[in-house]
Design goal:
The chain is α/β, with parallel strands linked by helices. The chain contains 14 helices and 13 strands. A 7-stranded mixed beta sheet has the order 9-8-10-11-7-12-13, sandwiched between helices. Strands 3-2-1-6-5-4 form a 6-stranded antiparallel beta sheet, covered by helices on one side. The longest helix is centred in the middle third of the chain and has 15 residues, at 137-151. The mean pLDDT is 93.
Length: 360
C-alpha cells in the first residue's frame, strides 16, 4: 500500500471530489465545491515528491521532470480511480487528484432529463458535452456511454488523457485508449479509430483544429462521436468550433457541422442545499432542421430563442434548468444567481441583492 493511499481513503470517506497536495502547505480536499484543510503536517517538498513518485509510472516521472507537469490515472482496487496531475510551482512540487467513482451512475440515477439517455441511441452524428472544469462533463458522458454499452450491439472506442471511467464490455465491445500510453496524440488515435470499425467514438477533449476537424468528419461519415469542450453555452460551443478553423474554410465547416451535429449539452454543477451532494443544471440543444439552418446561415445568436421554443424536443435553456433546481429546493437563490445567465430573472429571490460591479 502506497503512503499516499491514506489520503485517498480519507478523501473517499469524506465524499471529497479533489485532493490537493502542495509543498509548503497542509493537504486540502474539496468537499461539495469548497476547499477544506486536512489536519496534517505541512508538506515538505522532498517528502511530497517521494510520496508522489511512489505511485507514478517511470515514464510519467521522466516526462514530469522534463516538462514540469504531467497527467495520468491511478487506481486503488475496490476503492476508486483518480485522475492525477503533477506540476511544479514556486515552492516545489504539487499535485491534484480528482476521484473517478468505480461505479458508473446511469442517466436516471444522475437525475438527467430523459432526452439525454436517448442520445445513446443515435445512429450517427456529433454530440458535445460542455462546461467549465469540474462541472461533471465526464460523469454525464460516462452515463450516456453506459446506456449505449448496455442497450446496443456495437463497437465503442474511447480516447482520453488519462482514461477516467472504465466501462466493462456488456452488449458492446468497449476499447479504452490513453493518450501518451496507447497512442501519441488525440489526432493520431482519432485517425486510427476510423480504421478500427467503430460505431461510437468518445474523444476526451476536442482541444485543437486537427482533432475537431477529424471529429466532425467522423460524425459526418456515419459514426456517433461524443466529445467535450470548455464552453458555457450551446451557441458559444457552435461558435467555438467554427472559429478554430481558418476564415477561408469557415463557411464549409458551417455546412459540415450543421449536417453532423446532433446535440449540445452545457452544464453547471451546484452544491445541494437540501442534503449532501451536488447536482447539475443543463442547457440542452437538440439539432433539428431549424437549428441546422441557423448554423449554416451564421445565425447562431438566434440559438437561445430556438431552444426556448423547442421544449417539445427536450430542449432547455440553462436558466430554466437552474430555475427548476431552485423550485425543487435543491439549490439556494444565491448559488442560482451566481451561475445563471439572466441575473434579473433570479434577483427577486435574493434577500440581499448584491451590486454587481460588472453590470453597473
Amino acid at each position: 500500500m502506497a503512503k499516499i493511499d491514506a489520503f485517498f481513503q480519507l478523501m473517499h470517506d469524506q465524499g471529497a471530489s479533489d485532493l490537493h497536495l502542495v509543498s509548503g502547505q497542509q493537504p486540502v480536499i474539496r468537499i461539495r465545491g469548497e476547499m477544506e484543510r486536512i489536519k496534517f503536517d505541512v508538506l515538505n517538498n522532498d517528502d511530497l515528491k517521494a510520496m508522489l513518485y511512489e505511485i507514478a509510472p517511470e515514464h510519467k516521472i521522466k516526462h514530469f521532470e522534463e516538462t514540469g507537469d504531467v497527467d495520468f490515472a491511478y487506481e486503488i482496487p475496490s476503492l476508486a480511480r483518480y485522475r492525477a496531475n503533477f506540476f511544479q510551482q514556486k515552492f516545489g512540487v504539487a499535485a491534484v487528484f480528482r476521484e473517478i467513482p468505480s461505479k458508473i451512475l446511469s442517466c436516471h440515477e444522475l437525475g438527467l432529463p430523459p432526452v439525454i439517455a436517448k442520445l445513446a441511441t443515435l445512429p450517427r452524428g456529433l454530440v458535445l458535452v460542455t462546461g467549465p472544469t469540474g462541472s461533471g462533463k465526464s460523469t454525464t458522458l460516462a452515463a450516456i456511454i453506459d446506456e449505449a454499452n448496455r442497450n446496443r450491439k456495437d463497437h465503442i472506442i474511447t480516447i482520453e488523457d488519462p482514461i477516467e471511467f472504465v466501462h466493462q464490455s456488456a452488449s458492446c465491445i468497449v476499447n479504452h485508449r490513453e493518450v501518451g500510453i496507447h497512442t501519441k496524440t488525440f489526432t493520431a488515435a482519432l485517425r486510427g479509430a476510423l480504421r478500427e470499425d467503430p460505431d461510437i467514438i468518445l474523444v476526451g477533449e476536442l482541444r485543437d483544429l486537427e482533432t475537431i476537424s477529424l471529429a466532425v468528419e467522423a460524425a459526418s461519415t456515419g459514426h456517433l462521436v461524443f466529445g467535450t469542450l470548455h464552453t458555457t453555452s450551446a451557441a458559444k460551443t457552435v461558435d467555438r468550433i467554427i472559429e478554430v478553423f481558418p476564415s477561408e474554410t469557415q463557411m464549409q465547416i458551417r455546412s459540415t457541422l450543421a449536417d453532423g451535429i446532433r446535440a449540445v449539452i452545457s452544464q453547471v454543477l451546484f452544491k445541494r442545499a437540501d442534503k449532501k451532494g451536488r447536482c447539475a443544471a443543463l442547457e440542452i440543444l437538440i439539432a433539428n432542421s431549424a437549428v441546422r439552418n441557423l448554423i449554416r446561415e451564421s445565425k447562431t445568436f438566434q440559438i437561445p430563442s430556438m431552444i426556448q421554443t423547442g421544449k417539445k424536443y427536450g430542449m432547455q435553456l440553462l436558466d430554466d434548468g437552474i430555475m427548476d433546481l431552485y423550485n425543487k429546493g435543491w439549490i439556494t437563490a444565491d448559488d442560482a444567481y451566481m451561475k445563471c445567465n439572466d441575473k434579473a430573472k433570479f434577483r427577486p429571490f435574493l434577500k440581499f441583492p448584491p451590486t454587481d460591479f460588472t453590470e453597473v
